[in-house]
């Protein structure tokens, strides 16, 4: 699925027909019918099927899409445009929101990180907090789930020690003991596959 963008038109209304899970996203999506044109928007906390979403409305209601200049201070917003008409670039992860701090020639928002950021008053945003909060509170429970979670994010926090392997898999493997079983130092000129352990260690203490 392509990036979820705010509707391109300035004014209009649509009805939420479904709330769906989106693979690859942390938050659910709302399927919105804008008079025959089906669009996908980030679901906000409190949204429900049958709810009306207004674009360009002046009513502060969950899911409505408005210009930042029209949103009162203290309101939680998400899917914020970086420049007018780009469809939304900021605050799109489950459970987060930004807060309107002040309005004027520029609109100041406090981002989820705590940073205060300036925006063009004509930029738009959706009202509310992105749904799916609490996702990270659920315990992984099993090492396998954590393994796959880290693997999907290109993080390799799981490392099997060489002494736990078989001798065909690692130079330190084999033997019924949890130690290397021989010198762990290796020459810097060792061939690939044998270059494991303490690589060309040097004396730390100078001779007198």
Automatic annotation (TrEMBL):
<dbReference type="InterPro" id="IPR014722">
    <property type="entry name" value="Rib_uL2_dom2"/>
</dbReference>
<feature type="region of interest" description="Disordered">
    <location>
        <begin position="165"/>
        <end position="208"/>
    </location>
</feature>
<dbReference type="Pfam" id="PF03947">
    <property type="entry name" value="Ribosomal_L2_C"/>
</dbReference>
<dbReference type="InterPro" id="IPR002171">
    <property type="entry name" value="Ribosomal_uL2"/>
</dbReference>
<dbReference type="GO" id="GO:0002181">
    <property type="term" value="P:cytoplasmic translation"/>
</dbReference>
<dbReference type="InterPro" id="IPR022669">
    <property type="entry name" value="Ribosomal_uL2_C"/>
</dbReference>
<dbReference type="GO" id="GO:0003723">
    <property type="term" value="F:RNA binding"/>
</dbReference>
<dbReference type="InterPro" id="IPR014726">
    <property type="entry name" value="Ribosomal_uL2_dom3"/>
</dbReference>
<protein>
    <recommendedName>
        <fullName>Large ribosomal subunit protein uL2 C-terminal domain-containing protein</fullName>
    </recommendedName>
</protein>
<keyword id="KW-0689">Ribosomal protein</keyword>
<feature type="domain" description="Large ribosomal subunit protein uL2 C-terminal">
    <location>
        <begin position="60"/>
        <end position="192"/>
    </location>
</feature>
<keyword id="KW-0687">Ribonucleoprotein</keyword>
<comment type="similarity">
    <text>Belongs to the universal ribosomal protein uL2 family.</text>
</comment>
<dbReference type="GO" id="GO:0022625">
    <property type="term" value="C:cytosolic large ribosomal subunit"/>
</dbReference>
<dbReference type="InterPro" id="IPR008991">
    <property type="entry name" value="Translation_prot_SH3-like_sf"/>
</dbReference>
<dbReference type="GO" id="GO:0003735">
    <property type="term" value="F:structural constituent of ribosome"/>
</dbReference>
<dbReference type="InterPro" id="IPR012340">
    <property type="entry name" value="NA-bd_OB-fold"/>
</dbReference>
